[in-house]
Structures are given as C-alpha cells and as structure tokens.
Model the fold of this input.
Amino acid sequence: MNGPHDGNVDNGKLTVIARDVITGVPVLTFKYIVNENNVGDPQVELPEEERDPSLFPSLRPGASHSPVVAVGEASDTSQPVVSLPNGRYLVSVLAPGYKLGGNWVTTTGTDKTVEIKLHPNPLPLSRIRVHVFHDNRPVNGEDDVPLESGLEGFRVIITDAVGEVTVDYFGNPLGTEYERDASGNLILDPGTGKPVPVPGTGGKILTDSNGDALIDNLPPGKYGVQAIPPDGTDWIQTTTIEGTHTIDVWIEEGNDGYSPREGFRMPLVWIGFVRPMEFGPPRPWETGRITGRVRTIIEFIPPFRPLTLGDPVDRPWIALSDIGANDQQVYTGRGDGNGNFTIENVPPGLYQMAIWDEPLDHIISFRTVQVGRGETVAMGDIGIPRWFGYIKGTVFNDSNGNGVRDPGESGVPSVEVGTRFKDGSIQYRTITDMHGDYSLDEVFELERFAVAEVGFTRLGYTGATATPDYGIPVPDPVNPAVLCRDARGNYVRCSQTYTDVLTLAELTWAAKTNRIDWGKRVYKKGENGGISGMVYYATMRNETDPRYAIAEDYEPGIPNVTLNLYAAITDSDGKVVQGNLINTVTTEAWEHPTGCMDPDGNVDQNCTEVPNISNQIRPGGFDGGYAFETCWDPYYSHPDAVEIPLPSGTYIVEVVPPTGYKAIDRDGSVNTDQGDEFAGSAQTFLMRMAPPPYYPAPPGIDTTKKIVRVSEGLNATADFFLYTDVPIPGRIVGFLLDDVNLETNPGFIYYGEKRGIPNTPVGIRDFAGRLITTVHSDVNGIFEVLLPSTYTRNVPTPSGVAPGMYQVIGNDPGDPDNPNEHYNPNYQTLKMVFDVWPGKTTYADVALFPITAFVGTPGAQFSQPPQCAVPADTPQIFRVSRIQANVMHQNDDNRTVTILGTGFGDSPGKVTLNGKEIDILEWTDRLIRVLVPRGFNAVPPGPTQLLVTNAAGKTSPTGITFHLRRQGVYWPPVITVKKDGTQDFTTIQDAIDSAPDGAIIVVSAETYYENPILYKNVKLQGRGPGGIRPDGSAVAGTVIDGRFFLTYRDRWLDKLSGIEFDGPELVPPDRVKEISRGQVLTVVARAGAFSGAFRPQVDGFRITGARGEEGGGIYVNAHCSYLVISNNIIQSNGGGFGGAITIGTAYVGDNYNDNIYIHHNRILNNGGISLAGGIGIFNGADNYEIAYNDICGNYSAEYGGGISHYGYSPGGKIHHNRVLFNASFDEGAGVFVGGEQPVPPETLTAGSGEVDIYNNLIQGNLANDDGGGIRLLQPLDYRINIYNNVVVNNVSTDLGGGVALDDASNVVIVNNTIAKNITTATAEDSDGRPHGAGLVSEPHSAAFRAYLDVVHPGSPGYSDPVLFNNIFWDNRAGTFNQDLNNGRGGIGGIGAAGDPQPVNIMDLEVFGGPALFNPQYCSLSRSYDGGSNNIYVDPEFVSEYDTEVTAVAFNMEPDFKSVRIVTVDPELTGDYHLTGGSPVIDRGIDRVAGETETFNAPEKDFDGNTRPQGTGYDIGAYEHMLVP
Done:
C-alpha cells in the first residue's frame, strides 16, 4: 500500500493489451510505459479504526515523481509481457492514431492482464464562452442572473502556460468564422483540405450586445481569459477566481463552453465590472458619512491565534449597494494609499459595502452598514483577507561567510531568486533590485511545500537566514521559551541560519511573509563554483541540436539520475577525449521536510501541510538538481583517492539515462509534429501527418555527454534533457470540499476551514464521459490520482502543448455495471476539468454543494444529515400487492390487498380509502391483508388515497393511490413493467412510449436505473417506496434511481429530441427543448394535453439519485397542469432550482403549470443550488396545493430550503406539512414565498400572488440569512394568510428566526405558535447586532413604497401584518462571541453553557427604525409598546426545548461564520400543546376589525379540533381539549 512493493518480491507477469474504445477492435501496435502508482491511500474499504493514517493523501508526504519501472512495445506479431514486483502501477499506452491512454493494475505475484482502451483520432475541438457583465445589482463579483446586464465591446484575450494565444487550431486568427453547408458542416477547401474562413472575420474577440463572446476551435487545455474594457472607459473589474484579472478555465476535447457548476447554462467564464459612482450633493441634517481604513488580515485561526491585521490595503475600492431599497449599486469610490476612505453625502439607509483592491490580490469582502440621518458611521479598521502570501528578503555579499546579513554587508543586484515546485518545474521568478532586495508579492496559497532557490550563475554561496511569519507577533504563545522577541518586545518566531544552501523548502500561507536572506561571496584566488545543473524531463523537444536545448518552465526535473564526471584530455589532433572517471553523483530527489514548529513553539515532526502550522522554512531541494564541487584524485574508486575541490579546467559530464529514458539527439527526438489530430464541430476531419510511435537514434552520436569548462571565480552549468517514448504520467492532488459549510470539529486538520468531504468517490472520466478510474477522498477530503499525461505537441499555441485533460467528477456515482459503493447521497455530483502534464502535479479544489441540511450531534465525529425517521409507533406502508381492483369482480382474491410495512401494531386499526374503511382480513405489526368489498360504493370509482391508521390512532405519513375500477365509470387500461420481461415492458420509458392517454402504468417493486420522460396523460404508479424495518429487514419497493445519467446522457437527449412538447411563455419555439438535464423524472406536455378529468400522476415510488441541472427528483417543465405527485419518498436528489420537485423554471414567464397537487410525500435530504431546496414552485403554478408532506433535511444554497414559492402563482395552499430540519444558505429555510426579482431591480416585481400557509409544523430549520421558519420576500400586496402553524426552534443568522417579512403589505398572522426560535447575527450581511427572533419586518423597497403611495396611500413604510391570537414565546436574539467555547467562538445571549451573558429575548422587531407592530390578543414573552389586549406570560406548553447551536468563524475570514443546530436526536423534540393550566387558554378573540375588513380566527386548530373549546378562543395553534 505504501509504494509499488509490498514486501513480496516474487514477480508476476503482466500482459498489456490495447483496444479501440469505440469498436472494441484490438490495437496491435503500440508502446507502453509502466510507472509506480505511488499515491496516497484513503483505505475506504477498511473500517475507519483499521485504517493507517500515515497512508492518507492528506497526511502522507506527497510524492513529486513516479519512477519508471518498465517500458516496451507491441507489434502485430508480439504481445508485450513484463515482469513486475508486487505493487501498484499505472500503465500508459501510446499507439499511432490514438489518444494516449492508460489503466491501473495491482500485482500480487500472479500473472495478470491489463487492458487499455484507446480513443481514436480525430478528437473534437473545444470552445470557451465568456460573459462580461455590469456587476451592480449588487456589487459582489458574482453574476446575479438575470438581474445584471451584459457589457458590449470588451476585448477578450486568452493565454496558455507560456503566452497569449492568437490563432485557432487551424492557424487562423481567433474569432475566425468558417464556411458551412446547410447542415452546419464545415466546408473544406478542395486544394488544402482546410476549412474556408469567412472573409472579414477573426483578429479580435469582442463581447456582443449581451456581453457574450465565443472563442471557437481551440485545442484542449488550460487557458487564462481576460476581458479588457474599451479604451477610454473607467470600468473596474470585480470578479476573480484566485486573485488575478485573468480567469483560469479548463476545457477538455469537445467542451461546449458552458459551465458545469451553475444550476442553468452559463458560460465557462463570467467577469464583472463596475464604474465609479458618487452620491448627489449633501443635504444638511439628512445625509451622512462613512469612514474607515482597510487592512490586510494576517491571521485569524481561532482559538489558536486571534485576529491580526497587517498593512493597509493600497487604494482599496469601496462600493455600496442599497440593500434596504433595491440591492443596486449607489456608490463606488477609492481609498487612499494608507487604506483610508471617506464616503460623503450618504442618504439614510441600509447598505452592503463591498471592498476589494485594483490588482484583486485581496478577496472581495462585505460589511453591512446602517446610516441614520446625518450620522457619521466610523467603521474603524476593516480587515479583508488576501489570496496570496509573500516571500521576500535580500541577496547580500556575506563578507564573513556566516550566512547572516551583518551591518555593512551590501546587497547584490540582478540575482535571480524564485521558487520551484517540488518536481523542479518553475513556479515564480524575479531578480534582486539595485539594493539586493527582492519580493515575490503574489505567492499563491498552494497549501503544499515548494522550494525557494537563489540563482547560481555567479558568486559563491554561504547560506541563508530564514524567518517564517516575518513581522507577525505571537500573542500568548504556548511555549514562549522557544520564541524570540522583536524590538517592541513582542514574541515572534525566530530566524534560523542554514549554511551552504542554495535551496530551502517553504510553505507560504495567504497574507503571511516568509523572509529568506541569501548570502553570497566572491570566490578567492583559485576557487570556482564547480559544475551544477539539472536533469530535465524534456516535455517539449523543439531543438534540432541538443546543445541548444533550454528548459521550459513547465518541464520537471528527474530525481535519482546518475551523472558521471570525467577528466577531459585533448589529444594530438586537438580533440577533447574522455579521461578517467573522477566523480559520480545522483540528481536530488524531493524529500518532505521534518521538524516543523508552529508559531506557538509546538513541534510537528511530520510537517503536516495544514493552516494551523502556519509558514514554514526548512531544509529541502527539488527534483533533478545536481552539483560537482569536488573530484577524486587521481580518479574515482582508486584505493588511495582523495576528494579535493574541483580545479578549474575542462571536464566531461555524462548523464546515465535511467530505465526507459533517452537523451535528446540531433533530430530524432524532436516532437513538435507529434500529437492528436483534431476536428471541428462539424465532424469533418482535418488530417495531419500521424506521428510514428517512436524514432530511431542517429548512429555515431553520443548525446549523453557534455564538455564543460570550469573557470576560476565562476560557476559552470550543464543541463541535460531526457525523455521517454511514451510520456510519463502526471498526478492530480485534490481537495473535495463542502462549498458552504465549515469544519466545526476541532479534532480535524481543516477545523475552521471549508469542510472536507470524507470517503467519497472521485471519478476520472475522459472527454466523452467514459469512466476511466475512481479514487476516493480520505477522512479529510483529500484525494490523489496518477494519470496518463499527453504526447500532443503540435498545436499552434505558445507552449505548443495540449495537456491531458480529464473530467474530475466529485461524488461520481459510477456506472450501472460498476456503481460506486461509497457514493455520497448528501452532496451533488460535480464535473470539473483539470490538466495533467508529464511529471507534474496539478492541485485541484472540487467544491460540492450539499443537497441536505446538516445537524450536529454531541460527541459525533461529523455533522450528519437529519435522519427524518418515522417514529417506530407510526405506520409505514412499504409495498402493496396490488394497486387496483375491479370492485365488481366475483373473486375476492382479485379485490384483496396485502400491505407490507412496519409500525402497524399488533392490534387491528383501520385501512381507509379516501377516509372510508375497508375490511380487515389479517393484521400484524408488519403485514395487513384487506378486502375491498364487492360493489364497494362508499367511495366513487377512481383513484383513492389508501392510508393505514393503527390502534393507537397514528396514521401513515404516506399511503398509496389505490384505483377502484368499474367498467363504464373508471376503467383505464393497465400497463405493467417488470425488468425480467414477464410483464408488458422492461423499462418505464418503453411503457410510457407505448401507453395511450388515460392509462395506468404499474411498475414492479424493483430498482430502475433510468431517467424517464413522462409526456403523456397517464398515471405512473409504483407499488410503494419500500423501506427498512427497525430490525434491519428490508422490503423492496419501486425505485427509480437516476444517478447514472452521465452514462446514458446521449440516449436521453435523443429521446427528448423526438418528443413534441411546449415550453414556457418567454421561451422561443426553437429553444423549447433546451430543458434541464439529469433529473430522475422529467414531465413535459403539449398545451392542453393534461386535464382534470384524468389527472396525470406520479405515485408510489422512491425517487433518488438525481444530480440535475435545474430539476432534481422530478422536474415539471411547462403545460403540466393537474399533475399529481403523491405517496412517494423523494430522497437524496440535487438540482439547480430544486432538489426534490421543481415545478417550472424561473424568469421564463408563465410556465402554465396550474392546479398541481403534491401530497403525502416524504421529501428528504434533497438540495438545490439556487432558489429552492426541497420543492420549488415557479411562475405560473396557479392554485397549487402542497399538503400532508414530510419535508425534512433539505438544503438550498439560496432561497427556500424546504418549500420555495418563487414568482407569481396565485391561489397556492401550503398546509398540513411537517417542515423539519431544512436549511438554506440564504433566506427562508423552512418556507419561502416571494416574487421573482424584478428586472431591472429598480422596477417592481410581479409579486407572489395570494398564498395560504396553515396547519404546518415548521421546526428546526436554519437559514443563513433571514427567516428561519417562514420568509416572505416581495409578495407585495397579495394576501398571505399564515394561521394555525407551529413555528418553533428555528434559527436565522440575521433577522426573524421564526418569521421574516419584506415588501409584504397584506399579511394576516393568526393563531400561530412562534416559540423558541433564535437569531445569531452571524450572516455575512448582518450588522452583528441582536435582532428579532420571533417575527421581524423590514422597511419597504423604494419601488414598493412608490407603488403603495399610488395604490394604497397612507400605508406603513414597512410590512405591518395583522397579528392576533399568536403565541410569541422565548425567541432569543444572540450575537457571536469569540471568547466562548475556549476561544473557538459561539453564540452569546441565547443561554448557551458557559455564557455569562443573560438570555436576550426579542420576540418582535421592525428592523431599521422605531416603528412597532400592532399585536392583539397575543401572548408575548416581554412587555411590548405596540398593540393591545396582549398578555405577557409563560404559555405553559406540555414540553419545550431550547435550541442549541454551534458557530465557527472561517479561518482568515472572521465575518464568515458557520452555524449548526445541535440536537441529541435530530428528530422532533418538544410538544407545544397547551397544558390544562395554561394562562393563554380562552384569552384569544374570534375576530378583529381592520380599517376596511374584519379578520376571523380559524374555526379549527392545528389538530383539526373545533374552536373554541371553552369560553373563548385559545391563543396559539392548538386549542386545548377539555377532557370529559
């Protein structure tokens, strides 16, 4: 496991074969190379307690090089067989006419065969799409689609690893368009065979009126993209990926130029710009001022190191967006050279401040600023994090040779200083200035050691003095005795001097400085610097004479190569001939440093590469370097030889190529004409000369030796360049991380950083999506893979190299024939693309969005998704034996139904069809048999809801639709599906294709790996979702699992293209079929095809495994009115705009999806990237109904973790649902109701339409902004009725742990229980102050105020709901306190253990001003100045519980905090019914009168009991039932 050899040296024979991946035909002629597969091992196949942490990729010192073990070739007559010791290997194969490929093998002493599948040429070319946009709504560096407009006329340039790319693959200027025929195929010039350019095209890429640009016909590779504003304009770039104006982009063969990350089709590259903007003239006593200073955050790693601010940010940009009005930019200006800024004439309001710098070296950061009338807001020092660290120092003339720069020792100018990767390739370079000073100011936080070096072209070297964390004080160190003091008396890390070094290993973190001062000296009389150099791997071989070979920056060194030094003798003819061998060395090999010390003085012997260790400088060198500074006199290996300094003179240096390597020669090794052949998108092939598989060496030339003259006082250099016939592999070391959640467990190495996703598969696929191999992340989220690289050197780019490009699939499900056992249902599947170069390491971050909420469990190693289990005493229906019966059938057997499940109880309860009981034949805890009586007429024929209620009165949360058939009344045809072929069809899609409208398609209890498209007016009926009983026994159900969509994506697209359906209102007819991909079930329809007479339905399934673009489990496109989605378990699906169920699409006008009914489903652990988590309801879903569902553990990276109503869909009803433990990274964790964001933002949204929200349990939800339980955002003046809900134990990190209102002027909140909710004031846009935790309202936006002034003059300037008969109890407003939890931080003011701060209860708040609500007949925790007839009492619930949360601040970004609900059992806790002595009983009112309307209390309570039960209405959601 720790290398290629596992102790057993018995060799087995490995046979290498190759096949064409498309045809399967053997490829007989090829060459191969075998390399050690020396990567870390996560050991996921072992129980965690049996794993060896020293092998984890995150803890094992990473290899820089993979040794070549064997090379060989195959021909028509010989099959290669190689003998290998036991171990792990990668076999790479190169065959003429094929893309380089490979496969992995582990040998165990027995004979094996490894098969490599090769993709034939030509390969498709690629595209880059770029979108440049006005980043003003708000200013945040992100493209807030569709609110921000594109920018025209920006010039787009691209670069590769060496320089600017100016031509496409065909050699014509970028932007050249080509003649095509009527079918879109390229037209070739009959003379040249090349495509025919369209005259007048090419030469400059400019964005169009939409801000879009296309760069077409590119070879695969990694490119940098930059957008240049038009001349004479003042646009300021806000967008960066990793701290530069250039945006990196990776494209594999055939890439279409769209991003795989977004929930909808977005260009690969998007770049935002803003313009300077000032406020208007001052208005005395009205406008205010904002001042502050921007500084760099040097350090913040709680609890180990507190916040430390460094130098001011030079001339920072400051932008304000009016988030209290319409989220639009209102100011952009610049600070001075000391980071100071003053913003004058600021109107009163609430603003989001964005802060960044011109070179984009700092990460754009945000603050929320509230400015009152005439107020000066002094923000003081504002820390913002930096992308880069620094390496700086001097090169000095070390006259006394002690390696320390002493007073009077001068600097040495024009000396090259830089860093290399540990493989020896160049990372950064600079030269010292006239004073000998140097500074590398943009050292990227690689999170891995690299190697600093000083040039050795002249002068001798004495050593180096190194100071990690230079200039950073260490407050309260753990081990002060091992630290030093600076001039101010602060503890600091000590400097250390290393003698006789030219290189040092360094680990540099963002914003911190590693200082290295390099000592040099003038040689004494008779001295010289010897012979030194590198042995490079010659990736690019374009020199026809090896004497003139020079290294490219991307070429690595080769370690452990032998070099021999010979005396040189001049013979009588004046020729230099080889003399005795006088020395031999091997090239240096990277060794991971040891003996590191952190700033507190703690020693980490293994030098683990994690942030807590901080900067490090240790002895170390890179691969490939060598030096001859001495020789053996009289010659090497002489018994009396003496080692002496190398005298001046002439020598011969010889390199001895290791196994499989060759030295470059005069012409046979040139590879600039080698490479894959590529074709344009038209599938018309441009043929190039195919390279031979290898070249013979020219006779009579020894290319392994160089004659070197060593002169007094100088340093001699001799570099060598080796290659292999088959290029050596490269590797990817990646971090699979949670993109929104922090690691809150201090026992993990990334504590306080983005959470690593453990034990999760990472698929490596080729450009066609074929799965090549799968690796796994380790317990810390790190993965590593060795991959075949590339042999393509013939592309017209500055580097000439097209690197190997791979799709890296985070959380890859595998293929149907080879599913990944460790596929993680809690995260999305994400396709990224990365480059692989010969001998190099690519570092990759693969950031996944979670598709489930997480809760903390005391003592648990990880936060876990809530299990959302059904209580053991509650019935669950897993499967039924039949789903239909002819009520007139003579045979009772044909009307008998067997129900399998659990929780039925031993005593009979009842089974009902639409509430009417049917006969019980047999009843056990696991099995029920029932009979539909002949002629049963208690319920009319048709689809009915079957439910089980046990003797204790508990009813199953889901049921099954049971069809009562009767000829002449309800007699739909029944079509059956079973995979073994014994029924009508073997796949669901085949059954749909063949079914007539009005049919029932019954699917057997099996798992179907397919992604059906439902496009007919049929009922898709499963037999139940299946399940697992408490004893672990399983009952199979009908499961549709869409996880393998990547495998059959093309077949799905072909099926979709053959279906005729209509699209939303604003989608052009020619784009109707550009719909979401990857969802499990897609529903499309022609206009008017679906009706209420026979409602299309999806019922009785478990739907799982989706990782869709827009939709997840079920995506309902348009014109799908009357659809019913019922009795399903929809679990572990991910989509862009909704994880479980997505009804329509945002921003396309009316989707025509009216009268949709979603009931009795369990919607669990699904997630969306944008707008919705569990259920997403988008424009034009009028009169929808969401009822009797369990909606638990879902997650949205934006709005609506549980339910999101987004857009205008009047008449919606959300009732009798349990909305539990959902989360959103933005607003509305439980239920979100809002209008679409208006375009442009200063206009008014269309609103939401009327919605009723009633009789829901909304508990344990967490929003990372406003509205933990319910969030209303811009419903406008449409009536939103909120009544009989239990809204408890929810958390908001900003406003309204229970309920938050914004631009909602017509809200009625009656008879709700809103209790024990929390706010934490930790959201990124929070002002850090405690805010209302029960109900909060905000001031209206400017557009809505203007509307109300016309339509409803005199309306309040904030959302002022009708409030009566509500309980507001113990809603707690907290703030973040870094001192809690031993300095790790926590939420103060909510009653947390160890918090000295008193509990801060804040039930109600009108944010942003002195206004008050008008609660009537409510029960409140504290006295409140507004309202009337309220009481201030403990409502005395049956049981309540305090919500506990954890909170961790992101290392280096203290304003980004992760909050997690902690619960011992992540299920329902607390009973918020009233006890008999509750003081709120009979204290409510039956109605209240408004100015123009009387508002009635609901006639029934949460449980369906009639109100009132006593002399008056009870306050809250429950009416207390009097016991007779």
